[in-house]
Design goal:
The complex is a heterodimer of chains A (244) and B (336).
Chain A (H helix, E strand, L loop, with lengths): L1 E7 L2 E7 L8 E5 L6 H8 L7 E6 L2 E3 L4 H6 L2 E4 L11 H5 L6 E4 L3 E4 L1 H15 L15 H13 L5 E5 L7 H18 L2 E5 L3 H7 L2 E6 L2 E7 L5 H10 L5
Parallel strand pairs in A: 3-10, 3-11, 6-9, 9-10
Antiparallel strand pairs in A: 1-2, 1-4, 4-5, 7-8, 11-12
Helix pairs in contact in A: 5-6
Chain B lengths: L4 H8 L2 H11 L2 H15 L2 H4 L2 H10 L1 H15 L7 H19 L5 H24 L5 H19 L9 H8 L1 E2 L2 E2 H19 L1 H11 L1 H7 L3 H27 L11 H10 L11 H20 L7 H28 L1
Antiparallel strand pairs in B: 1-2
Helix pairs in contact in B: 2-17, 3-16, 5-11, 6-11, 6-14, 6-15, 6-16, 7-8, 7-9, 7-14, 8-9, 8-10, 8-14, 10-14, 11-12, 12-13, 12-14, 15-16, 15-17
Classes of the chains: A alpha/beta (244), B mainly alpha (336).
Chain lengths: 244, 336
């Protein structure tokens, strides 16, 4: 993303922000409330249209007008509120609005529940090593499992880029640890690039390769995680200046 | 490879919770069976348990049953429709006048189609207003309840009799020895059950009712889904009006009056959530049968018909209390 600017009326939410994501890396996106993290991500996935700036994926400049279009470009998002429908099954949630269909008597298009359950189980078991019944309703699951189902849903479209908005903020330390391990597995085994928006410094330092910090709608900078410490990052977030 | 199976095993392996929740959600069926058996003790067995009486129980509730279906679809989508009874009455009176008074000689089936088209149009206006203009469903359907409820009386204050057989067939006719109303009711519920389980729009209705924002983010067209639900509600309400007319053999200005609350009661007692996204449409059918069994049984034990409305109110109260208790119990079980 280059020079992304987004205004809401007179408020400049993003002012010429750049964001680079390398293939197979985990990038932390940090900043205080109101720094523009969410707006930047929403602009990337087509919820907002930028007033200026460009998005380039593998050298090709693209215009992303909706979350659906973002998925077509290989970008999946897991929002902080997870956006799961509690009353529906695990499989139905994973394939929400994308249920596999078959033809009844060669004519009538109907939902292929068998295939949906099988596919869901395969993704959960083989790609995430989760033993969750795809026919169980989501409301029966724990917080960590629900987070995992939201990530599993993002995997249905085989994304190249996965965006996780505060993935562990509502989880117990144990569940958070498991979700962190899951993210690492996805990067290592599938080469998925991940952007993590987080307030949790432990998580950011455990997981990420690089960290991008925003402040008040401006890019402060991007640093390699192993070259900085927490104090440097706090300085970037609060002072809006690069370390050293 | 990461493994989070142990957490799953402890929490998810608790199938007892799942089973209890499932029982709670389907409790209308045992209630129906017990009610049916209880009336059998009060009424001569050969009379209450006869096939004729069972068919009559369903036949007499065909109109209400179709209204319950309309209401259930709205409830499942996270909305509701206060205008179902008023739309049933208005469309029946309008179509009755059309074929009897305004264009006499027009075939009855045209009257049925006019009723359905008018129902679809009213439903579309409800849906458009709610999903596009953002009007609160309560206020929107309340105004239509008033407009079309009163509109019926403006159209006529007299009953319309002498309607063609083809107009009255759906509510009063017979086919292969069965009442058409019974076959129609069961067919409509079967179709609705199929659509809700096996089609994209069915899944969309549940998703929109469960969490509209999540459904939208996933890619469902929530506006179109809600409009479709209200169009279906309007068409079904109009069909219910035609069935009521066929059942009593005439169109009266008070047709389907007072049927709104029994429709809610049947849906709620059948396990359809007032908050959307939860419930089985066959449960709503059981709710209809329960209400109808109670009414039929009360008539057979000589309870005055003037009591029926009050008893309906008591059933609605019982349904709401039952629903609240069930929702609390479910919450407690899930957070245990």
């Amino acid at each position: 993303m280059r020079g992304i600017t987004k205004r809401f009326g007179r408020l400049v939410a993003l002012d010429g922000v750049d964001l680079d994501l390398r293939e197979g890396e985990i990038l932390g996106l940090l900043g205080d409330n109101g720094s523009g993290k969410s707006t930047l991500v929403k602009t990337l996935v087509g919820v907002h249209r930028p007033d200026a700036g460009t998005v380039t994926i593998r050298g090709e400049q693209v215009e992303i007008g909706s979350p659906k279009q973002a998925r077509e470009y290989g970008i999946s998002t897991v929002y902080q509120d997870l956006a799961l429908v509690n009353e529906q099954t695990v499989a139905a949630n994973m394939f929400l609005a994308r249920a596999p269909m078959k033809r009844l008597f060669g004519l009538l298009p109907v939902v292929d529940w068998d295939r949906m359950n099988e596919e869901a189980e395969r993704i959960l078991k083989e790609r995430m090593n989760l033993d969750i019944d795809p026919t169980a309703r989501v409301e029966f699951l724990s917080g960590g499992e629900r987070q995992s189902i939201a990530i599993a849903r993002a995997l249905v479209t085989d994304p190249d880029i996965l965006i996780l908005d505060e993935p562990t903020s509502a989880l117990s330390p144990d569940s958070a640890k498991r979700v962190e391990e899951l993210v690492q597995t996805l990067r290592e085994e599938e080469g998925i690039s991940v952007v993590i928006i987080s307030h949790n410094m432990d998580e950011v330092f455990n997981l990420t390769d690089r960290i991008t910090v925003l402040d008040n709608g401006n890019l402060v900078g991007t640093v390699d995680t192993d070259t900085v410490d927490r104090r440097d990052i706090v300085e970037m977030m609060v002072g809006g200046t690069m370390p050293g | 490879m990461v493994s989070i199976t142990e957490n799953v095993a402890t929490r998810f392996g608790d199938s007892r919770t799942e089973m209890l929740v499932t029982v709670l959600e389907n409790m209308v069926w045992p209630i129906l069976v017990v009610t049916f058996l209880a009336f059998g003790l009060l009424i001569p067995i050969e009379l209450f348990y006869s096939l004729d009486n069972i068919q009559f129980i369903i036949f007499s509730s065909a109109g209400l049953g179709i209204l319950v279906l309309a209401e259930s679809l709205c409830l499942l989508s996270g909305n509701f429709d206060l205008s179902v009874g008023a739309v049933a009455g208005f469309t029946a009176v309008f179509s009755g006048l059309f074929i009897y008074q305004w264009f006499p000689g027009v075939p009855g089936v045209v009257g049925v189609l006019i009723a359905l088209a008018l129902g679809a149009f009213i439903g579309f206006m409800n849906g458009f207003s709610i999903s596009v203009l953002g009007v609160n469903p309560f206020l929107q359907t309340l105004t239509f309840y008033i407009i079309f409820g009163e509109g019926t009386v403006i159209l006529t204050q007299l009953s319309i009799s002498g309607l063609p057989e083809s107009y009255l067939y759906l509510g009063g006719g017979s086919l292969f020895g069965f009442k058409v109303g019974v076959l129609l009711l069961l067919t409509l519920f079967a179709i609705a059950g199929f659509v809700l389980k096996y089609t994209r729009i069915g899944l969309a209705i549940y998703a929109v009712g469960g969490d509209e924002q999540a459904a939208k983010e996933a890619g469902y067209n929530t506006t179109r889904t809600i409009i479709l639900v209200y169009v279906a509600s309007g068409v079904l309400s109009a069909l219910a009006g035609v069935v009521y007319a066929g059942y009593i053999g005439t169109v009266t200005p008070t047709l389907a009056n007072g049927q709104l609350f029994p429709a809610f009661a049947a849906a709620v007692v059948g396990g359809i959530s007032l908050f959307g996204g939860r419930g089985n449409i066959l449960g709503a059918l059981a709710g209809v049968l329960l209400l109808s069994t109670i009414q039929s049984g009360l008539v057979l034990v000589n309870v005055p018909s003037s009591w029926v409305a009050t008893i309906n109110g008591v059933i609605l109260l019982a349904a709401v209390l039952l629903y609240t208790a069930e929702a609390r119990l479910r919450q407690r079980l899930l957070s245990a």
